[in-house]
Amino acid sequence: MAATFELFQDSAGEYRWRLRHENGQIIADSGEGYTTKDNAINGIESLKENAATAPIEDQTG
Question: Closest Cα to residue 24, out of 46, 6, 42, 47?
Fold first, then answer.
C-alpha cells in the first residue's frame, strides 16, 4: 500500500484527515477542520474521486 488516509480530531475537537505515504511523509491534508466525522470522510471520498482525473496546471512560466 502506497498511502493511507488518517482521520483524527484536532485540539479544537474538529475532525481532520491527512494522507500519509508509506515512508511516513504527509503528502496531503484536509486544510480545514470538519464539525462531524461524516463530513471529514466525505472530504476524503471527494479527494479520492476527483484527484485521479485532475489535470496538471503548469504555473512555472
Answer: 6
